[in-house]
From TrEMBL:
Pfam families according to UniProt: Mit_KHE1
Signal peptide: none
Assigned GO CC terms: mitochondrial inner membrane
Keyword Membrane: yes
Protein name: Mitochondrial K+-H+ exchange-related-domain-containing protein
Keywords noted in UniProt: Membrane, Transmembrane, Transmembrane helix
GO process annotations (BP): potassium ion transport; proton transmembrane transport
Domain of life: Eukaryota
InterPro entries for the chain: Mit_KHE1
Transmembrane segments: 145-164
Amino acid sequence: MRIIALPLTSSVRSPRLVGSPSPLVYYHFQVPPKAANKRSGWVDWATGKAAGIWAQFGKASESSWKFKIFTYGERLVDRVDFEELALKGVDPSMGPKLSHPRSPSEEQTKTTFIPLVHPKFVGTSLLVHLETILARRTPRHRKGFYTWMLLAPLTAPFMLIPVVPNLPFFFCVWRSWSHYRAYKASEYLQSLLHRGAIVSHSDVALDGIYATHVPSESLHDSTKSISEDGREVLLSRDAVPRILEVFGLPESAASDIYRAIEQAKARLPA
């Protein structure tokens, strides 16, 4: 498992939080692929089935209601916080197992260290930043999970509408499931942080990417302090293909990074 930290802005103040501004960072959680001989449970089957049906909607005729629903659904996904989308992609079962050692020496022997890869110019402050983000999002996703789960039964009257499926129900289920995945991932990552299993690791290749695809004045300002009150986006869309190439990420990761960049631009003060 590997965590790739991509600073998006030098600093931004969230209207929902009180305190000093903090940078927006996209964390990509690179987990190992599932073993071919590992049996999939019913949850994996249902998730794959839903993903397949949704993909078929996207391949339908542009004039059909399926394609229109797909287009509108993708717009809704774009509005979901990129932090949530990144977290829900973490499968704790595919990461290092959390054991309970009987002694400190046994704990040190069994601990598997996970690198938090980041550009050198941000220093080691991202460990604290990640811990802060997880502390904020864990209760938020727990609340979102229960809220959307309780709202789902209220959509039952829409089942009376013929032809078109009960879209409000499926939306509530999807939002509840998304929050649940993000909630469990947040708890898992917090446990790894508390055990000291996540370690900071600067990567000169990332510095090279930022230097190539970021205006020189933006990079110069960010080297002073990533938490200063800046208003600049540090990562451009042109850098994404190079990031995928350097870290061996799948093409599907590009859409998540693009979405994070666009949301970062929208969150910057006017």
